[in-house]
Specification:
- The protein is of the alpha/beta class and 396 residues long.
- Helices cover 44% and strands 15% of the residues.
- It is built from 15 helices and 13 strands.
- The strands form three sheets. It has a six-stranded parallel β-sheet with strand order 10-9-8-11-12-13, with helices on both faces. The chain has a four-stranded parallel β-sheet with strand order 4-5-6-7, covered by helices on one side. Strands 1-3-2 form a three-stranded mixed β-sheet.
- α7 links the parallel β6 and β7.
- α8 packs across α11, α9 crosses α13 and α12 crosses α14.
- The longest helix is centred in the C-terminal third of the chain and has 20 residues.
- It starts with 11 loop residues before the first helix and ends with a helix.
Amino acid sequence: MLLNRYLPIIGGAEMQAAQLSRELVRRGCAVTIITRRIRPELPARQQINGVPVRRLLPVGLSTPANGAIILSMIAHLVAHRRDYDVIHTMGLGPIAIAATLAGKLARKPVILRVSTQGDLRRENYEKLKLPLYRRLIRSLLVPPSLWNAMLKSADALIALSQETVAEAEALGLGRSLVLLPNGVDAQRFRPPQDEAEKMALREQLHLPPSATILLGTGRLVTRKRFDLAIKALKHIINDFPDCHLVLAGSAEHQNDAVETHLRALVEQSGLTGKVTFTGNVTNVDEYLRAADLYFFPSEREGMPNAILEAMAAGLPIVASRIGGVVDLLDDNTAWLFESGNEAACNAALRAALSAPVERQRRGVVVRQRVMDEFSLEAAAQRYEALYLRLMKQSVG
């Protein structure tokens, strides 16, 4: 399983890979994580939750490193071709190029997972805050013809949402397309057993005990639009003075980090003391159990792990109406608003805060939907079936 970055660096793909690989191992599969050595202090070899992790050189995420990691991964995959049956990437970019080329050389089936809507068209690269010369280098190193050839050569292309399915079909990639939604560990991500557990967690996490806690989780990057959460809090704080916003996540090693901007926005909005930045955390499940309402204003996603985790925790949800989210929630199970619409975001938050009984009902409903359709066990079973099918086709 190939990733651009891996634990202890935390993001949606990283957490999904960690949970999925652990469950696959439990089912009897042999899984190895191959990733980049983002920081020099991270070991080249490590076991995390019983899964071997190999971090390859070069160190870092510079443009030269992006090119060199392709060669490094190809060399590793070809040299160890007798040790595995399937190559599975948890995203596109350099690791997908390495996977498809190595797959041809090693004669192994390749699965490319599309993380976010817009990735197939490479639209999201343009939205990163990269210098112009770096964007030009990306285009020269991987021109559209090579990019399209890479996508079409994959034995399976994993779409997480119907929006990504439509994007893939429009690009003529329907032949290898598989809709395979994420799963979530519903044992770890669960509601609090009672009010006492919730209050104990708030004390442990240094959160205000009597506040109505609005929680946002994930990387503090541009597309997550956590600025809307801060602006919404400013808009409603006079009517709901007990509200407290918690942003659990960081922007470590991200080109489009906005944490500094968000902190400045809190101060400018007069919300100091009403917003908590936790930084990078590994106990997101505890923050979810300590919260009252989940806030997700992102402008684009694949199928967000963060939403699945909040659903599993039985939290009522206010979220942007985007691809991936609408595969999981509707207007009867969450308060949805049009992406980027500040007034609609404010109205959705106000509606949720004004309806405590309805919040409780929706929390129960979304928890049950996860249990019925999006368990980690079900996701691992679907992936295992895909691996076996591709292995049989490869032998045939």
